[in-house]
Amino acid sequence: MKLRRKILFAIILLVFIPVIVMGIVTYVNYSNAMEKKSSNFYWISLLETDRKLKFALSEISSITNSAITQPAIQQSLKQQNFVLTYDRKQEINNLLINHPMITSFSLYGKDRLLYQYNAPMSFADMHKQVWFGAMEAAEGRPVWSGPGENGSASGDKPVLVHARVIKDYYSLEDIGYLVVYVKPDLLDQIFWEAATLKKGDILLVNKQGNIVFNKSGEHIGERTDFPFLQENYNQEQDYYIDNYQGERSLITFLPSHNADWYLAAITPMNLISSESVSIRNIAIILGMVSLLSAFLFDRYFIRRLVRSINSAVNGMKRVKQGIFTPIPVPLRANDESDSLIDGFNRMSSQINELIDQVQTEQGRKKEAEMQALMAQINPHFIYNSLESINSMAVLAGNRDISKMVISLGRLLRISISQNQELIPLQMEFEHVRHYLDIQKFRFEDKFSYELELPEPLKYVMTQKLIVQPIVENALYHAIEQMEEHGTITVTAQENGKDIIIIVKDNGPGFDLEVLMSQWDKERSNPKKYSDSGVGLKNVHERLNIRFGNPYGILVCSSPGFGSAICIRIPRIQPS
Predict the structure, then answer these.
(1) pLDDT band at residue 169 under the 50/70/90 scheme
(2) Where does the record place the HAMP domain (predicted)?
């Protein structure tokens, strides 16, 4: 990953993400606190509503409790086929119609409708009501049925039904039924006084899920599916969040004093979340500001810093390649990054100057070494003296001496040619031939030699005196130690853009330790050059100094299998 991306990523991790996490945690905690606060508010409101509901219903129950024990009702229900007189009806009316919320009532015997006041419901119809079974099971206790339960909510006159079984005052036997119809205004007044948030609602539901009544007056009689109405509901807390009428809402519930009813408060979640919207918006704004700050910091600071570092890195790469160009600074900030660039530029210029000095000194050193090496191999013979010896040998009739002197003269002619560094390969092979001819007079028939130079390679230019030292080593270290006949082969061949000269002998060969010892001897004993010729290391160093890597010699040898010395030189055409 790039340094700039790493720094930007670090800023986002250290600034942006903590701000976002802090905003989310604050928003979630505040939302949960608002939910809890709203739930507590509604739970208190539901508790107060249930208390008022209990008081209002108890007033009606007290009236019917007093009425059903009076002789006017007790005697009327006990007598078979009793016909109520006008006075008795007025007496019953006075007992029951003494509360402003009671609109009508019906008094039934065991098998017939005995008396009704503004409530024309037959005895048979009473048996069909949803509350009839609960009334009989209550055994004299009052049973309440709201508009949403008794079906009156769908009609023009919704009512709250108060129904109970009438028992004989003395024997407690069932003697009749009393059904009282109460105005729904009783519930409306109670629920209207209940405290709710805007658009909130309070419901009165029964255990079957029917909405008995609610504050808004909507959806009365509809069936709902609240989880707290289920028998196996685990009541860990008195509120939860769920969908109601297609809207996500906070639902707070409370069992009513009436065992068949529950009070539930509905609050849309958007009302509660609106309280925490400001915190959410602040968290979003802070997150965006922190992100924007990170990008501005990257744009106006990190980019320039990383650009300076990248310039220094690129400059180091160029230095590695041997290029010492200074790093330009388009805009100066007068900080440590400028000091870094200035320091690098000074270092680069100093290194460049030092390299120039070293290269100059190395050139001079190579030139001195080349002159020293050439001086080592220059013979201290005088060519004219050899010509005199040759003349004397001819006059004396000794042809062998004459041939040796001629070969030695031509051999030395190449050696003393100081004005020529490069010679044709043909001349180098000719030099080797003269050298081997001289050595054959010494070794007689102990060895033979072959020189193979292809016609296209005869005029290729090469460093002089590079093959003869190798051949000399082959004679003194291989052929001279052999009892049988020896063979030396010198061949030249093309290898791409290079020329390979191979000097091969059938001598005893040598291992790596012998080679390294001879190599080290040449370094530590420079007199060897004047005593026994020029060594392998001398040839390798001259080729390496003149042509550079990878030119030089390669030694291939193994005890008992002879030796092969490969000389690698570049193919240089004559100019």
Answers:
(1) confident
(2) 303-356
